[in-house]
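Q: I have 424 residues here and want to know how they pack in 3D. Can you give me a structure?
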Amino acid sequence: MKPRKSFKPSDGLTNVRYEIRGKLANRAQELERRGYDIISLNIGNPYAFGFRTPESMRLAMIENLRHSEGYTHQKGIFPAREAVVMQQQERGVRGVSAEEVFIGNGVSELIDLTLRALLNPGDEVLVPSPDYPLWTAAVNLNTGRAVHYPCRPERAFIPDPAEVQSLITKATRAIVIVNPNNPTGAVYPRAVLEEIARIAEEHRLVVLSDEIYDQILYDDAQFVPMATLVHGTLCCTLSGLSKVYRACGYRVGWASFSGDVEHAAEYLAALELLSSLRLCSNVPGQWAVQTALGGHQSIKELTRPGGRLHESREAIVNGVNKSRFLRLAKPMGALYSFIEVREDVLPDFDDQAFALELLENKHVLIAPGVSFNVSYRNAFRITNLPEPAIIDTVFARIEETLEALAAAEPSLRVVDSRSKVAKR
């Protein structure tokens, strides 16, 4: 009998990673099946931590179920697209109509479709580092090359436009902006966004602005829609229901095109073709869009002082400040903190080894920093969705694990100064 050949995956997956749901998450599931309670901080899934979609959105979906049993237009139902237009116009975005809005099965699908319609083999896309890893994966899957522009911890993870400019080549087709940022929680200042917009216009780059966390802001942070700044090139604004409206499972996102739409007719036609091939996106969830964007914005009650998300973020800040090992650029938006382990205290720290140790012995699941396409190995991401008491428990376990790592290396220099959270 001839030996059977193995079924090999596509070579196109060689540079594709999504460690947030990778080996560590699989190991966490194994431990849960064996009866252990795991505190999972690797994914920003509001429902898992007791958050609910606003009732008005649920009712809007239920009342329109009878209109949801057939295919819809490939771009999405008109009321949903028109609601996106109205929101963009209220924010000062010019020249957008329902024809330039595409509804997708979450922003994740639209990231794939917008890149697939744009890229040829070898085309380059500027992607932030640290990044939301789907962006890098989607560029690679669609025959492009992700070129990472650094968002450095010492700059509170705010990109330097000069560094962005230096990475542009003849092959560069687009730039990705994630603001408010996942994984760092950074909210970009207007001046930085204006400079990036001018760079994109100068080089005729497509601006892909991921704004899924646009209303999740803390303290005095101000969100500036990229589409209000980009006029001389094409701008694609991506957002959806999953985070601000706590409706991850509805799988509803949108892509709104503005700026130089006049010269993008062929590209938008290609995107419509790809949208047609999947027939349409999830219909029931689309009926919640108009209610969501036009109604009471309950997220503000959660992000202001005393609100659940604000207080959980404060618990993270306090946990870092109490530790001699940790350092944090204070997150001003989104649902995450990208925490550094001080190399002067633990110079041999390895984020993946630490994450595995924390999971196996303390039953806490985090996302190692290397999962977000950074070159350094001394960071990890957690979500601030749990209640403050749970976060306090998490930091106690983190501290115990770090103390054990320090004790295991007697050559490490003891540092007495306390870590601080950086303020912008």
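Q: Anything worth noting?
A: The CA atoms of residues 9 and 16 lie 12 Å apart. Residues 411-419 have pLDDT under 50 and may be disordered.
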